Amino acid sequence: MFKNTIVITGFLMGAFLHAQIGISRENVTNGSVSLQFGDNENKGLLLPYVTDKTGITENGTLLFDTSDNKVKYLKDVNTWFDLSVDTTGTADLNIQATDRVEHPGARVCISPTLGGTDTTQGILVLADDDKAMILPKVANPHLNIISPSAGMIVYDTIKKQLAVYNGTVWSFWKP
After folding, report:
1. What top-level branch of life does the organism fall under (predicted)?
2. Which CA distances in Å does 152 have to 94, 135, 165?
3. Which residues of the chain have pLDDT under 70?
4. Which of 34, 103, 159, 163 lies at a C-alpha separation of 20 to 30 Å from 136?
């Protein structure tokens, strides 16, 4: 447990010091990237499980709503947009064991200029106004991610679509 605390603390401290972060890769692809994941590792980004989203007001927030088992993003204050489409989702909430303590103020902010001064609420805040996050890239995630978790989100490199998993089925979004 102590070892995990040290690793997490090191990661969080690094996030404040370095404005661009690559996860499962040595670096990011260009200066317009805040956070980039490794390619084709058949792993996805697991969104936060939220039971009560009434206090969330930051447009662009992505989460997994456990009240109806859907991946959603806040499109406009109080307007949540469903990315799951399918209504049969399920979630194993054991991933958030009941013996864990929630720390409402816990957060990591990635920004070359705002860093510790940004007050946007969230677990992970990408506070740049000129950089973006690149999702994990997976070819055919519905075939290659063997045990996806509810709330997972990736970019499908074959279909060239956003793919979200609601705990039962994958939904695909294309602009």
Report:
1. Bacteria
2. 15, 11, 5
3. 1-19, 40, 95-107, 112-116, 123, 127, 129-130, 175
4. 103
